[in-house]
Amino acid sequence: MGLTGLEIYKQLPKKNCGECGTPTCLAFAMALAAGKGALDSCPYVSDAAREALDSAAAPPIRAIKFGNGSVLGDETVLFRHDKTFYHPTTILVHVSDVWSDADISAKVEEVNGLEFDRVGLHYSMDGIAIVNESGDAARFAQVVQKVAAATEKSLVILSDKVEALQSAVPPVAARKPLIGSATEENYETVVALAKEQALPVILKANGLDALNDLVEKAQALGYKEFVLDPGSRKPVETLANLTHLRRLAIKKKFRPFGYPVVAFTTKNEPLDEIAEASIYVTKYASALVLKASKKGQVLPLLTLRQNIYTDPQKPIQVEPTLHAVGDVNENSPVYVTTNFSLTYYSVEGEVEASKIPSYILPVETDGTSVLTAYAAGKYEPEKIAEALLNCGVVDKVKHRNVIIPGYVAVISGKLQEKSGWKVIVGPRESSGIVSFARSLSL
After folding, report:
1. Residue 279 and residue 195 share a domain
2. If 129 and its partner were Cys, which of 92, 117, 313, 365 is the partner (CB 3.0–4.6 Å)?
3. Cis amide bond preceding 354, omega within 30
4. Is residue 317 part of a domain?
5. What is the pTM of this model?
6. Closest of 247, 249, 251 to residue 226, by C-alpha
7. pLDDT tens digit string along 14-41?
């Protein structure tokens, strides 16, 4: 259980110096107990106190790193509107060692090709989970090495058989895979293997009480690089377990459950499986293993993940630089908009649909839409004029005509005065760009 603010305060130097960023040591202690501060912020804390306060200073959910940059856990809140979520659910595709070599190669190639660009963001699958369903240690090791050679993505190596893990893990240990599963029956050997290879390991038990016991036994072996699997494979049970684990770790500071959690889908029909997976991405899987791997199946899941793990206090933005749409030339129209991602890509899509090559200049507005930016004083004539001057468009077109959104027609006169460009008031909504562009005569 985490320490209270008063318990932490007793260990602090009580200088009230303010160097930690809070006015008093008591306020700092309260922030530390709430998970909103870092012990390193205090320059005067003693080594003895630091050791005593280690549990309070540690994040409620431990960060576990594996594979090719995958990070699990290290979350500090239960709801994203409280602050934000930091590490998106790591999504991995199931590959079985009972498949033929041809099927395995095809699946890995398919996963490697799951790359998407949407509203300026890049989506991809994070890795592959190789599962020992054959029971054959030699075959499992062969498949693990085959997959490792065919992809640079993160790897999860899954078997309940100690012999299979001992055969498959060491040859690919340099790839830093996540391995599992350590159970009540084999945890000493599997955790020892993980510790020897410096790899994170999945602890699997059926139910939270059994998982708590297993975590405490595994910790007693002197290792703490764990990912938890509560063993449930029914969606309603998995959702309940994931929620309880997150609540106990965040709200109660219950340290045995302060680790990332992995979930596995069980539905066989792809759309049902994606619906199941969306539950686990929402609450609160750190890693997710699923079978679906078609582009049309996984894109909605990746989009959902992106939405959940976007900072709600920071809108998605595009670079406020000049963008060319189509085969532009010196006569191409010039549109200005804001750098709010949704606004920009709505405009870009309509400009593309018009079939008229054009330039689009998204002005820096801290990622806010046209009317919001104008109301906040971030979409003013002076700022737009400066952007036109600095973006290089004056060297790319021979005309001096700029098209502004119809909603801010009121700034047209002043913008023309400040920039020296002729200002053309465009449609209010981006949906009107196609007909507007085709009737435009510059």
Report:
1. yes
2. 92
3. no
4. no
5. 0.75
6. 249
7. 999 988 888 999 998 888 877 677 787 8
